[in-house]
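Two proteins were folded this term; both appear here.
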Amino acid sequence: MFERIKPGFVEFSELASAGAGGKVAFSTDDFFATCENMISDSEPIFIEDKYTEFGKWMDGWETRRKRVAGHDWCILKLATKCIIKGFLVDTAFFTGNYAPKYSIQAACLTPEEESLIPRRVEAIGTASSEDDLEQIKKLESDKWEEIVPITALQPGYEETRHNYQKVLSDEAWTHIRVNMFPDGGIARLRVFGEPRPERPALTDIVDLVSVVNGGCCVGFSNAHFGHPKNIIKPGKGRSMSDGWETARRLDRPNIIEANADGTLKLQGNEWAVFKLGFPGTIKKISVDTTHFKGNFPDSVKFEGVYLDNFNWTEDKEIPWQTILNSSKLSANKEHWYKVDSEIITHLRVTIAPDGGLSRIKIFGLIDSE
């Protein structure tokens, strides 16, 4: 089976998909398939004999064959303000109907500018009205910063569907404009980057590790079935594939015994390290094992540390301080713990011996400094 080497930027948080909080703000045309499909969390699929009243059903964004002047484009609102590191434009299954070329522009919009975008109604067989097009012109999105120039796409065969594009801008953006030249289909768009959200009020209790508040995964021991960056996405996980799941450890004892507190006597564990969006103190922790019914970890432990320079590397000796001692977990359930930590910048989550988590939430107060 063909497998292309992925570029390094895919390790950054993904910030355009629906599960991360991305949204379609505007689209010129949704005739065959709506733009919302392009930011769906699931992998694209193809159903041979599935048709709609408008034509072949496709799992992506597909516009009609253009018979008027212009080209198709859309505006996406990212999950949070971010520095974009790269894109994946996936043309899966669009083999004779993929968009030949694309470009991407970006902007950081104020609430007043965002209010100029017409109300979005998702429906196949539709296109933007003349009134909507006049309204969106006020935003002057065609003059936004170009971060990906006009670039050729490849057809949606397995060996050519993944079109990666690195971005070299250090600006932070809230919205992107995806241009198709002139029309056609894109199965999925993924936007990878570093969150740069606005600072919440000091009195607000916020999820300090959430990707929408600037949290990110900076290291892990094992991500065989699912990356730990998934567990800091907003909302509930949609399936096991939308969480962090490790391989089964091979150092498990032949016969497993239990400790007095109910946790198991195990040698090994797996871990993930997260940088918080803002330094802060932790007051409450949620650990969600939803969907993990036969593969949840036996226990979980949380540790934190304050690093002045905000840098963490695996080879450094880190003075981790315990926030939550190893605590027994159960299947398919949200677990809550009250804690009281010092000010920290980084969090280490350790699961024993292995398994999967759907989401974690770390509620606390931002450091006043």
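Next, the second protein.
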Amino acid sequence: MPHICHKMGRFGLLRHISSLPSPRTCCLHQRVFTGSHPCYQNTVLGHSCQHSRGVSTALSQHIHDLSGPEQRLLTKLFDGLIGGQRASLAESITLVETQHPRKKELAQVLLQRVLAYRIEQESRNGGKPVAFRVGLSGPPGAGKSSFIEVVGKMLTGRGHKVSVLAVDPSSCTTGGSLLGDKTRMTELSRDMNAFIRPSPTSGTLGGVTRTTNEAIVLCEGAGYDIVLVETVGVGQSEFAVADMVDMFVLLIPPAGGDELQGIKRGIIERADLVVVTKSDGDLVVPARRIQTEYTSALKLLRRQSKSWNPKVIRASSYNSEGIPEVWAKMESYRDAMLASGELQGRRRAQQKVWMWSLIQETVLCHFQNHPSVREALPQLEEKVTNGAISPGLAADLLLKGFSSSSS
């Protein structure tokens, strides 16, 4: 997995988490963003160096010093980002998605500043999130892109700012992606109150990229109050998006036949809302039947929330029937979860889940690059291929060699 091995930059952060803060490193980010947006100055002087002192210290020690051009770049990106400039947001997401070690470090500095700015905004909002995150998944051909365009245009017409993070699958052979979702959203892509960002999975499981969670943070920092995350495919491994959004919406076509059997129980259990798409013309009757079947099926599943029962609703992107009702259900969900405090708790739990996900990826890369493992790996792979030893025994030998040489 070559793409994983670029993540070693994060591993260096772990070595410094327990270090004591020093006056020099605590103020690194203040120096980076001196003279930046006035709304941010209180955040830097107040919350950032008190609440996140340990993280800032670790990050600062990992980066050492920023050059003049790097400081100017981060200042320009941050000012443009919180000023609502779409070009700055796009450039910031590109910085987060990069595999270049030094640029990944710069991206973490930028993310810490945006996080502090977002926390300041939430404190002014009574502790409530300033944005609503919605994840959308479904089988190919369910009409996800068409649905997002219709919903997005309706929301921008109501005064919302909408960002769409569309994830496209990467080829297993060439590593490339079509990134064609944006071409299906022609009207929304021209809307100045909307931002669409297609990204490749680059081999990451779960239907999202490993940087999608960070891109969500950047979109919220740029003032987008609705963040829609469109994922690829559907199945047992394709609902990682549910661990980074406030609401998970499953889109299903009305005449999928046996293809619907590919949607296993795991993803149904995670759905907060099921939308039967393409409910128009000759497909109205099949759509009603599917709606009835899924409504009955959801009653048999254990409830995820004490404040919300998952709903099944029909909609058509072709004639916009049912689209306002879908958004009304989403608003009802958000209000119920906010009133009970479950939404805030869900976000806190998601941060922990995502941290451990990144730790697993980073530790795997560290394991693959360890000298003892790299030395023994070719011979053991050959023995496993020839059937001389079992894969389990080979894994145990590699782990023992890794543990003994690391201790």
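The domain at 54-127 is CATH 1.20.5.170 (Single alpha-helices involved in coiled-coils or other helix-helix interfaces). The chain has three domains: 54-127, 129-340, 354-404. These notes refer to the second protein only.
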